[in-house]
Structure formats: C-alpha cells, structure tokens
TrEMBL record:
Domain of life: Eukaryota
Native organism taxonomy: Eukaryota, Viridiplantae, Streptophyta, Embryophyta, Tracheophyta
InterPro entries: DIOX_N, IPNS-like_FE2OG_OXY, IPNS-like_sf, Oxoglu/Fe-dep_dioxygenase_dom
The protein, known as: Fe2OG dioxygenase domain-containing protein
UniProt keyword Metal-binding present: yes
Residue ranges of the region described as Disordered: 41-61
Co-factor(s): Fe cation
Keywords, sorted A to Z: Iron, Metal-binding, Oxidoreductase
Domain Fe2OG dioxygenase residues, every copy: 219-319
GO terms assigned for molecular function: dioxygenase activity; metal ion binding
Name of one Pfam family that matches: 2OG-FeII_Oxy
Ranges of compositional bias, category Basic and acidic residues: 41-50
Family under the similarity heading: Belongs to the iron/ascorbate-dependent oxidoreductase family.
Length: 370
C-alpha cells in the first residue's frame, strides 16, 4: 500500500503541509488527484471491513448501535419511564460505549443550523481562515488540520476548528462571524443536555442523579467542528484514525454522509446517520472513574469519495484548566470484589498524555492501570 521510497522525509512534508495553513481543504481546492504520502495509512491497518456492508464473507449483520428515545423523560408522573431510559443508557454504556439519542430536546432547526455554520466556516475565503490557523491551545478559536500532526504516525483527511464553551467561554466577538450566533445557541443547548445525560449515567451506576455533575464531569465543554473533504483516494487514508476519546463524555452531531464506525466485539460497525439524532459516547475518563463499568470504545471515521462530511463534536472535559483535582475510581463503586483498576490523575495530565501520544490506535488508559 505504502511505497518504500527511502527518500521520504515525513517530518519535512508534515511541516510543509502545516505551513500552508490551508489544511486538507487547500489540497482539494488545488485539484490534487493523488493524496500526499503523509496521509497514507500504514499497511497493517488495511482492515476496511464493514460488518454492515455487503461482503462475500460476511454473515447477515447482527450488530446495530442502540438508539434510545428520551421522550417522556421530563414527565414527573412517569418514574417508570425514567427507570427504563436509565436501564437502556446503562446497558449501552457497558456493552457498546456508544448510543444514539432521539427526542433529546435540541430542535432539528438548531442541529441543521450548526452544521451549516461549520460548513460555512470551512468554506470561507482561504485568507480569512489563515488568520485563525494556529497550534496554540490557549487561543480562543483554534483552526488547523490534525491536532496531533507532529506526533501521530499518519495524518488524517480532516480539518478542524475548536472553541471553549465552559467554564471559560470564548467571547462571542472572537468566534467566526459566519457561525457565531449558532455556536452560542448550540453550546447552551448541549451543556443542558450533557448535564441531563450525566444524571442518567449517575443513576445507571447506582449513584444519586447529581453525582457526576457534583464532581464536575460537566464543568468543561469544548466544541469541535470537523470538515472531511471528498477524497480522491479514500482507500489509502482515514478521516480519523481509530481512537477512544480523552474526555468524560462526547455528544456528536453527524451529517447524512456517514463514515463513523465503532469497534464492537472485534468488528467495525457503522454508526448510520439518523435524522435529528445525536451520537453519545463514553470517554476514557468516565471509564476510569466508573472502574471499567462503562466502556470508552475505539472508533474511527472513513475517508470518502463524497463530501464534504460535516460533524460537530462536543467534549465534556477540562483538559486545559490547571486544576489539581484528582479523579480515580468512584469510592462508592468499589468493594473487595471490585478493587480500583486505575491510579488517580488530574484531567489535565491525562489529556496531555493523550495528546502527546496522538491517535496511534492504542488506548491511553492502559498507561493509568494499577
């Protein structure tokens, strides 16, 4: 798959790509028909097997990601409904680490508008975007291609912008005008939804509903807009390499194109776009504090001939805050039969370790095992 040209200097090619400040979209706009070597996946990752796609050696699909309907959750006269939903959320978090939610309370119009806003940003004039291109994590808005460009073994076919929502929100005037108003609106809605999900997850762990919110799992929120341009050679690269998330919880909005896959029982399973739905997944930090009860699962995004694919990822995490607060397995969940499996860490140290490692297909959690 990958040529063995001994003159290949990955480091200088990565640097040259970064210095254009135009990202993957810049390559597409330039009309390339062959993708640069830095994007080539290593040959050992040639496992583009879709469990949910027709294939001569595949049995009929047995797997589909759970879809949970939150309708009726807010009805005070129906405690059984809440119990049912909590049970489904718990089961999905233990067995899949992923689920989709419908009737979550965020209007479809808001979902459509945030996707349009993200697309609008990436389709701005190149010179306008270049002014925001940075690798400084303390800038209010960060736009670049591949956060781990210099540490990961392979470059992904994806551009991203990121802004902080909580606890120290990016000032509205610092947000790109093309998506400013909708980013403010969407982030308020996601924050509210996140707090609700942490209540359900707390109950699914057998804790009081406020437990995860009380220990600040919902304190930090970062929103990322991803742009995956159409790729002339999608079989050679990935939209996002397989990885698990370095946060407590992720709420993802994907568009109609698809390409997200989850590793379930050793198979890559498609997460099909469901109109109006949001994808929720458990992050490494929630696996750590739940002492492996909830699972943070490897997932990836395939590159595609069609595009651009748009997604909006909301990460509940305080990775950039200089907090000394330690997180370890929750004491109430531990017993003689269930001793702690992880050492304590600050969120910042965990995120720094994850970012230094880059998306290399292995779990950063393993380095925190006792």
């Amino acid at each position: 798959m990958v040529a063995t040209n001994t003159n290949y200097d990955r480091k200088s090619e990565v640097k040259a790509f970064d210095e254009t400040k135009e990202g993957v979209k810049g390559l597409v706009d330039a009309g390339i028909t062959e993708i640069p070597r830095i994007f080539h996946r290593p040959p050992e990752s040639d496992d583009h097997y879709h469990i949910n796609s027709p294939s001569s050696d595949s049995e009929p699909t047995r797997f589909s990601i759970p879809v949970i309907d939150l309708q009726g959750l807010d009805r005070l006269d129906s405690p059984t409904k809440r119990k049912e939903i909590v049970a489904k959320v718990g089961e999905a978090s233990e067995t899949w680490g992923f689920f989709q939610i419908v009737n979550h309370g965020i209007p479809v119009g808001v979902l459509e508008e945030i996707k349009d806003g993200v697309r609008g940003f990436f389709e701005l004039d190149t010179q306008v975007k270049k002014e925001l291109y940075t690798r400084d994590p303390f800038k209010p808005v960060i736009y670049n291609s591949n956060f781990d460009l210099y540490s990961a073994p392979v470059t992904n076919w994806r551009d991203t912008f990121m802004c902080y929502v909580a606890p120290n929100p990016t000032k509205p005037e610092d947000l790109p005008q093309v998506c400013r108003d909708i980013l403010v609106e969407y982030s308020m809605q996601v924050m509210k939804l996140g707090r609700l999900l942490f209540e359900l997850l707390s109950e699914a762990l057998g804790l009081k509903p406020s437990h995860l919110n009380d220990i600040d799992c919902s304190e930090g929120l970062v929103i990322l807009g991803h742009y995956y341009p159409a790729c002339p050679q999608p079989e050679l690269t990935m939209g996002t390499s397989n990885h698990a998330d370095n946060d407590f919880l992720t709420i993802l909005l994907q568009d109609h194109i698809g390409g997200l896959q989850v590793l379930h029982q050793g198979k890559w399973v498609d997460v099909p776009p469901v109109p109006g739905a949001l994808v929720v997944n458990i992050g490494d930090l929630l696996q750590l504090i739940s002492n492996d009860k909830f699972k943070s699962i490897q997932h990836r995004v395939l590159a595609n001939y069609v595009g651009p694919r748009i997604s909006v990822a909301s990460f509940f995490c305080t990775g950039m805050l200089p907090s000394t607060k330690l997180y370890g397995p929750i004491k109430e969940l531990l017993s003689e039969d269930n001793p702690p499996k992880y050492r304590e860490t600050t969120v910042r140290d965990y995120v720094a370790h994850f970012n230094d490692k880059g998306l290399d297909g292995t779990s950063a959690l393993m380095d925190f095992k006792l």
